[in-house]
Each structure stands twice: as structure tokens, then as C-alpha cells.
Amino acid sequence: MNFLLPVRVALFYLMLAFTAFVWCLVSLVFAPFMSFRKRYRFVVQTWCRGAVWLAKAIVGLRYEIRGQENIPDKPCVILSKHQSTWETFFLSAYFEPLSQVLKRELLYVPFFGWAIMLLKPIAIDRNNPKAALRQVAKQGQERLDQGAWVLIFPEGTRVPVGQTGKFSRSGAALAVNAKLPVLPIAHNAGTFWPKSGWSKRPGTIQVVIGPAMYAESEGPRATAELNQRAEDWVNIQVRQLEEGGA
């Protein structure tokens, strides 16, 4: 039935776009009158769960999770591998409420961007790295104080399978200053949902949630050490997943 896969992928994108448009319209009407937590569940969690389900039902893209026991009771900073769009949907549905660091250009997308603005994202200007770091530090602390998880893709952009990107220290710095851990997450979503193009293929994505990592001291050196520890763990896990053909 592989010859039907392009048709299934096209149907998936059609359904994804349709549900996104409808749900953004509904959210813009009702979400402003909700508390932040209820708004997040209504706008993001519901639709993202639907997107993950569509990928499973239409494309055959399933997933397995390991390491749920490592998730702290209190929200902290999530540092995740970034290979595709799938993990954005999955993590946004799995952790709630969650504030994501994203490029501010997404806020300008009609309907979609307007709905995102209701959810307290940390929308940075990638062309101004110094200002972006200050913004992540300030707004990230505010989100953590409000009881939200902060999701950061420390590589800054989606990285193709088999490649790695240098981790930005912004997430580790935020965790050190807040005296909270970072929660590293590895996966192999890019194997089934590549960074480039429209192609998808059925299979089972492996998601591995690592142990919460705390800084051993304070200051820039502690930030660098924590960031490197998280980067090494994620890269090792991803390499094992890719070599295992998961």
C-alpha cells in the first residue's frame, strides 16, 4: 500500500490545515475569556493532540515514550532535540501549560499567529541574539513563576537526521537563574517526518525523556557545564536511536 502514501500525506496536510483554520477561528472567539491554563488546554493541547492523532490515523506515524518517571513535579526548562514539526505538536500537547520560545515572525501569520499570541509565547528576534537572550531570561522567568513549562529547542532550528547543532546556553542560563533543572528530551521524529519537503513515512517515533539535570553551582561556568551535559546526553540518545533504526 506504499503507492497510496502520497495520497495519505496530502490528505493529512489538507485535514491539518482545515482543522487549524477552524480551531484558530473558534479560539479567537472563546479563548480571550478563559484563564491562561484553560486557554492553553482549549487552544493548544486540544488541537495539538488532534494533529498527532491525524499523523497516526492517516500517515501511520505512531510514537512510544520512555522516561516519563523523570518528569519533575514542578515545571522547569525543557531542552529538546529539533528535527521536525511533529515534536512541536507532541510536546505542546504533552506538557501543559507550556510557553515556547519561537521566532516572532510566526505571530504575523493570519489566524494562526493571532491565536498563538493568546498563549504567552516567548517570541524572539533571531536577528538580534543579544536581545533574544535577555528576552528569554526575563520572560522565561515570568512563565516559570506562573507555573508554565518553558520549551526551548536549543539548536535554534530543525536539524536534519544525522546532524547536530550547537546548543544555545539560553535554556541552561534560565534554569540556573531560576534554580530549576533542565529536562532533556531526545527523539528520532526526523526519520519519519523529515525537515525538508512534504514526504512522510509510517513508523514509530521513539521519544526519550532524560533525567532532570541540575546545575552544580552558579554563574556562567555552571551554565556552560549544565548546557554541555544536556547537549551530550541528547546527542548520545539521538545517535543510539538512529543507529538502532527505530
Explain what you see.
There is one protein chain. By secondary structure, the protein is an alpha/beta fold. The chain is 47% helix and 15% strand. A seven-stranded mixed β-sheet has the order 1-7-6-2-5-3-4, with helices on both faces. Helix 2 (36-59) crosses helix 3. The longest helix is centred in the first third of the chain and has 26 residues, at 5-30. The protein is globular and about 55 Å long. The relative contact order is 0.16.
Defining traits:
246 residues, alpha/beta, Glycerol-3-phosphate (1)-acyltransferase, seven-stranded mixed beta sheet, 7 strands, 15% strand
Biggest sheet overview = 7 strands, mixed
Overall CATH class: Alpha Beta
User: What's the helical proportion of residues?
Assistant: 40-55%
- Our estimate of the beta-strand percent is 5-15%
- How confident overall, as mean pLDDT? 92
Structural class: alpha/beta
N-to-C series of helices and strands: HHEEHEHEHEHEEH
Reading side by side through the largest sheet, how are the strands ordered? Answer: 1-7-6-2-5-3-4
Stretches where pLDDT is under 50 for at least 5 consecutive residues are: none
N- to C-terminal separation? 21 Å
How many distinct beta strands? 7
Radius of gyration, whole Å = 18 Å
CATH-defined architecture = 3-Layer(aba) Sandwich
CATH topology: Glycerol-3-phosphate (1)-acyltransferase
Q: What general outline do the C-alpha atoms trace? A: globular
What is the overall number of helices? 7
